[in-house]
Design a protein that fits this description.
alpha+beta, five-stranded mixed sheet, Glycosyltransferase, four-stranded mixed sheet, 11% strand, Arc Repressor Mutant, subunit A
């Protein structure tokens, strides 16, 4: 959402019950509502508002119908800055809360817990206003059909809107009913726009044309799209890394490198602590919106790992290493899964935890200040608001080392010492709130990222983190019948899984299988996909629904790739990989059919269909299954995976196996490498060099 300039200086006092902030003493609250029974940090944050909030569930919706009140559905997430602002200005206001309680049935939704609810009402907001964002505030009839939606409102505007909606509901109920019916129909039409498409024969020329048209939107100076705010959009770069493996496109390679370097140098990356913020408010990647999300960092691990394999830039490896250190230090749960997010705010101020006064840095570093000042652009490009600096970079290590007449290795050691001192000092500050729920789907994205980091660096610790996390998901979040839970917190698994939980975990299982050869993972992937088909696939629409049939007014199908890839595009990739491993033509056909339904959309809007385009490439350009069988399979598999081979699925087995790619191919005392395409394998070879030649004759 775009906010007026005068709002940018707003700050708020986070209440004592803000998510992730530990209480030293028991606090007596004047108000306590139904949200106190929830586990979501975002919902608990609102548990002591004077607003009589209810959680989204069948009981609440039934109560709303009985009361006949319009429903206010307020949706946000724990690390959302403007959600905090609106809470402080309006939901903690006794007068406003009293009006809300009298005239509305108020429901609070954590969008990370219930992305299906968010999807419905965000679609409504986009239809009504042409845009959306969070907090999302939607007014609905007692049966849940929306008739008005918006995002952030200052208190004065909010009370006026409440009064206006109440007046319309009282005096023009019939018109609202009619509008809600039409709006619900509009939401349904959004869902059928893709499902009505006929699946097309895949044509790789359409991908080439799409990339060529897409280039007009690229910022070749600062990276990313040529607009602000700037989001990392990992899925786009995952696709471009695969695309440029097949096509000699120096312009696209330059775009990838410019973007990844500028992001790594920018304030969007926490230079001393590691980890990326969600987005940059400017075109320079300078000033981030300071919340850190697990899903961004999970996917960016994949991107920087793959880019390191391709370009061998040590900066990319450094970003991978720093990000994983941050994840372990600040996001690790004792279950071996990882937390969802860190807030942007601390002490009621956005970014306060991360910014520095020049004098403060000088006092901490003493004789090292001059180097830090130059390296992190203190007082120059790093200067932000109110005399604060965002630590960022503008020059390479080689340039800085030359300026100070030291070797790059000496520079690295000194910067490491500087970072350690600054991080130690920063750790004494009041920390941003932590959203300590563990989301199954986001952890699955992280597992895939850690597997890619292992392939790129060979660091066994990354493999251990990945498999420990996956084992925790299998143990805690997946039942015997392969039903998946969506969220986990403090020993409690809650909320029925949605398609993202099945598809992303299935992908994570494939990734873990690639690096471990543990067949339990690939078997679990196949079982999860079978369950996803059973629960979510609509044979008439030839698409997957996002959720099971439930209390929502519309059952949605997620198609557009956003900051997180769409679940249908994820399924297209998973079905392809499993089809190749198991030699299953029906899975391959289902994957190809899914992609064919969106081929025109890829052509017209590649940025919103980049994960689809990755799957498209695998079907239409040379893609190889490499099966390594024998006593040295694990060593050869690891060595092959360290190469820039984005057009391969590399798996190994050092024993007899019933997995179709390995079946009847194990011979004691030897190791054979089979290079195959859709189950058709060339004669086996024994060396990596020979295998590479078969893929590049």
């Amino acid at each position: 959402m775009t906010l007026p300039k005068y709002l940018l200086s707003i700050s708020l006092l986070i209440t004592l019950n803000s998510c992730g902030q530990k209480k030293e003493t028991t606090v007596m609250h004047q108000h306590t509502n139904e949200l106190i029974k929830e586990t979501s940090p975002y919902l608990l944050q609102h548990a002591h508002n004077p607003v009589d909030w209810h959680a989204w569930n069948s009981k609440s919706l039934a109560t709303a119908k009985e009361l006949g009140k319009p429903i206010l559905i307020s949706i946000g997430y724990s690390s959302c800055h403007w959600c905090h602002v609106m809470e402080h200005e309006s939901f903690e206001n006794e007068v406003i809360a009293e009006y809300m309680n009298e005239h509305f049935f108020c429901i609070k939704v954590d969008r990370e817990e219930r992305p299906d609810v968010d999807q419905i009402y965000m679609t409504a907001a986009n239809i009504i206003t042409g845009s959306g964002g969070w907090p999302l505030n939607c007014f609905a009839l007692p049966d849940g059909r929306p008739f008005h939606a918006g995002t952030y409102y200052p208190a004065s505007g909010w009370i006026k809107l409440l009064q206006s909606v109440d007046l319309q509901y009282t005096n023009n109920r019939e018109k609202l009913e009619d509008y809600a019916t039409k709006l619900t129909k509009g939401i349904e039409m959004q869902e059928t726009a893709i499902s009505d498409n006929q699946s097309q024969k895949l044509d790789v020329k359409k991908l080439v044309a799409a990339v060529e048209g897409w280039k007009a939107n690229w910022d070749m100076t600062e990276g990313g799209m040529n607009r602000s705010p700037k989001f990392p959009m990992p899925s786009n770069f995952n696709y471009l890394l695969d695309y440029t493996h097949h096509f000699d496109d120096s312009y696209s390679d330059s775009f990838i490198n410019v973007t990844l370097t500028k992001m790594a140098y920018g304030g969007i990356f926490d230079q001393i602590g590691g980890g990326f913020s969600r987005y940059s408010v400017d075109e320079l990647w300078k000033a981030p919106h300071f919340e850190k999300m697990l899903y961004d960092n999970a996917q960016l691990l994949t991107i920087y790992s793959k880019a390191y394999k391709r370009f061998k830039d040590p900066l990319y490896k450094e970003i991978v290493e720093k990000t994983i250190v941050w994840l372990e230090r600040e996001m690790f749960d004792e279950s071996n899964m990882f937390y969802a997010a860190l807030d942007a705010d601390s002490e009621g101020e956005e970014g306060k935890f991360y910014v520095w006064k020049s004098k403060e840095v000088k006092d901490i570093l003493d004789e090292d200040f001059n180097l830090a000042q130059i390296y992190y652009e203190i007082g120059k490009k790093g200067l932000w608001e109110h005399g604060n600096n965002i630590l960022l970079r503008n020059r390479s290590d080689i340039e800085i080392a030359s300026k100070f007449n030291i070797t790059p290795n000496e520079l690295k050691q000194r910067i490491s010492s500087i970072n350690t001192k600054l991080l130690k000092s920063r750790s004494s500050r009041i920390r941003p709130g932590l959203d300590d729920k563990c989301l199954t789907a986001w952890n699955a994205l992280l597992i895939t990222g850690l597997c890619e980091a292992y392939k790129a660096t060979g660091n066994d610790h990354y493999k251990t983190l990945a498999t420990n996390c996956l084992d925790a998901i299998i143990k805690l979040q997946i039942e015997k019948e392969n039903n998946v839970w969506h969220t986990y917190k403090q020993g409690k698994s809650t909320i029925n899984g949605m398609l993202e939980d099945y598809s992303f975990v299935a992908e994570a299982c494939i990734s873990a299988y690639e690096i471990t050869s543990n067949e339990e993972y690939i078997i679990k992937s196949k079982l999860l996909v079978d369950k996803a088909i059973e629960k979510f696939y609509d044979a008439d629409k030839e698409l997957f629904y996002f959720n099971e049939a439930n209390e929502l007014i519309v059952r949605t199908s997620e198609v557009y790739d956003n900051v997180i890839p769409s679940t249908n595009s994820s399924m297209a990739n998973v079905l392809l990989h499993l089809g190749l491993i198991y030699g299953n033509p029906s899975l391959l056909s289902m994957s190809e059919n899914l992609i064919g339904k969106v081929q025109d959309n890829i052509s017209n809007y590649p940025g919103g269909h980049s994960n689809w385009a990755r799957a498209h490439l695998k079907h239409t350009m040379p893609f190889y299954e490499i099966a390594i069988v024998g006593k040295n399979a694990k060593q050869i598999t690891k060595s092959l995976q360290s190469n820039d081979l984005n057009n391969t699925l590399i798996i190994g087995s050092d024993r007899k196996s019933n997995i179709p790619l390995f079946k009847d191919r194990f011979i004691n005392g030897t190791t054979k490498i089979y290079v195959c395409q859709k189950g058709v394998c060339q004669l086996p070879v024994e060396t990596i060099e020979e295998a590479l030649k078969l893929m590049n004759p």
